[in-house]
Structure formats: structure tokens, C-alpha cells
Amino acid sequence: MSEKLTVVMVEPHKAPYAAKIDDELSALQKAVGGYIETVYNGDETIIVCNEEGKLKGLEGNRRIRGGASVIAGTFFVVGDDGENFRSLNESEVVRYMERFKEVEKILQDEVEADMGITFISM
After folding, report:
1. H/E segment holding residue 99
2. Which are the contacts of 48, defined by CB distance < 8 A and separation ≥ 6?
3. Interatomic CA distance for residues 45 and 86, integer angstroms
4. Closest by CA position to 108, among listed 74, 64, 61, 66
5. Residue 49 and residue 33: Cα distance in Å, rounded?
6. Which helix (H) or strand (E) segment is 69 a member of?
7. How many Cβ atoms from other residues are within 10 Å of residue 69's Cβ?
8. 10 Å Cβ neighbour count for 109?
């Protein structure tokens, strides 16, 4: 039996909510609707989203990094213990419920404009 993780789930056009997710890859992928991608928040928490969300044309959900980037599709915020995911603590749940409480209107053009690949030559 896998451990349950406490996360903040954020779906397009909905208020965020606390949820429990099994700490196994198939459950994490099911929660975001595909392969997972991690985006580090710099505060021992991680956004977990659909790696192909923008390519698949999923709806824009929330802006991150001061509006510089858009998350497409459902995502969740989980804790980071350095090697694995961990449950969010109560203050982290409150922080991210507040951070993502406003439903944002994001046009598909804005989602598409945020797609890109960076090549680094050596």
C-alpha cells in the first residue's frame, strides 16, 4: 500500500483544494492527465503538471514566475524533501490555497506563446 501525499490541487476555472494522492507514479500521472513535469518553487515545494499540457492544447490554468510562464491543464503542489515528494504541511497548504485562489482567464494564444525549446550548444 502506497503512502498518501497531501497536495493542493489546482484545476482550470476552479478554486484550489487540498487533496490526497497516492505516492506512486501512476496516481501522479492520473492526477495531471499524462506524463509529469516538475517545476521547483524555491521553497521546498514543487508544482507537478502535465509535461505535454501545452502541446496537447490543454487550457491555460494559472500564471507562475510573476506571470512569465503559464501552466496548462490541472496541476498540484507537493512538498520536496530533497529526494522524494512529501506531503505539504498545514502552512504550505494555506499558502498555496491563497496563492492560486484567483481563477485566471488565460487565452489559448497566451498558452501557445509560452511554448518553446531552448537549445544549448557545447
Report:
1. helix 90-99
2. 7, 28, 31, 32, 36, 37, 38, 39, 75, 76, 77, 78, 85
3. 9
4. 61
5. 9
6. strand 69-72
7. 11
8. 9
Residue with cell 500564471: 63
C-alpha 72/C-alpha 119 separation (Å) is 22
Helix (H, G, I), strand (E, B) or coil at 41: coil
Instruction: Give the whole-angstrom CA distance, residue 14 versus residue 74.
Output: 10
In the DSSP assignment, the letter for residue 59 is: P
**pTM, rounded to two decimals:** 0.87
Judging by DSSP bridges, how do beta strands 85-86 and 75-80 pair with one another? Answer: antiparallel
Model confidence pLDDT, tens digit, residues 20-75? 999 999 999 999 999 999 999 889 999 999 998 888 888 888 988 776 788 999 99
Model confidence over 77-87: pLDDT tens digits? 999 998 899 99
